[in-house]
């Protein structure tokens, strides 16, 4: 990812102001922690080198929680904080302005059985898993927000489909809680992760408002895992694109839909 950011800056001809990640950063402090806790996938324990200072981030990174984080470390930072030099956890839920860009976020995924249960310290395998689920009070914290430019979530909202010839439609993807939240806040843009599939889509709201959605693939290739946008000084979007070339696929005034989904090898 660090190499991709450098290549993107070369393609754009300018430096990046802020970098976001939509969950599953898996910022385990040591290689042993990673092997013990992130056993679902055979991934290298790369972050330990950043935690120790052996490697450094090209640009500061702000991330929300997914469902595969180091929850034992993040539990003490529900409102966010720096977990390593340049790596900033935004917290379980919240909002913040980055210049003129007003950003809100919700970490975790939906687990119906645990939506209304209290969040307990992640001291056992069960409570560590449950720490990756958002709770009803966290969702309620966001409902009263106004004029959200960008909403970051880990799990897709219900109602996004990708129809590709020769591949089945997956109507079960996404959750209804996040969809209701999007319909309430009506953010201009929504960025998601979790489902390991890149997708461009638009959600329409009553009254003509629309939310443009960019779902990011897992970080195996930049074409689907890296999405960039340029905003003006008033927080209005100017252009956007996928990958590291710096070539925009969307400019202000154009429609945004499945035809903007990146073509991946």
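Sequence proposed for the structure above (265 residues):
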């Amino acid at each position: 990812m660090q190499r991709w950011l450098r290549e993107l800056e070369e393609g754009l001809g300018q430096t990046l102001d802020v970098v976001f990640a939509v969950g599953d950063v898996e910022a385990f402090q040591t290689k042993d922690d990673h092997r013990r806790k992130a056993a679902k996938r055979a991934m290298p324990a790369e972050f330990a080198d950043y935690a120790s200072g052996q490697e450094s981030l090209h640009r500061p990174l702000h991330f929300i929680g997914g469902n595969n984080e180091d929850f034992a470390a993040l539990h003490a930072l529900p409102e966010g904080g720096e977990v390593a030099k340049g790596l900033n956890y935004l917290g379980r839920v919240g909002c913040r302005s980055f210049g003129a860009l007003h950003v809100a976020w919700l970490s975790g995924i939906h687990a119906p059985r645990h939506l209304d249960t209290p969040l307990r310290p992640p001291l056992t395998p069960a409570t560590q898993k449950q720490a990756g689920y958002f709770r009803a009070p966290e969702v309620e914290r966001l409902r009263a927000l106004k004029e959200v430019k960008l909403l970051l979530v880990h799990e897709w909202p219900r109602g996004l489909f990708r129809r590709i010839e020769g591949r089945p439609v997956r109507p079960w993807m996404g959750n209804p809680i996040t969809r209701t939240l999007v319909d309430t806040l009506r953010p201009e843009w929504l960025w998601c992760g979790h489902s390991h599939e890149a997708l461009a889509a638009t959600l329409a709201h009553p009254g003509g408002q629309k939310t443009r959605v960019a779902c990011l693939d897992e970080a195996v290739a930049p074409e689907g895992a890296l999405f960039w946008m340029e905003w003006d000084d008033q927080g209005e979007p100017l252009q956007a694109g996928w990958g590291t070339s710096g070539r925009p696929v969307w400019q202000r005034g154009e429609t945004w839909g499945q035809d903007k989904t990146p073509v991946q090898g």
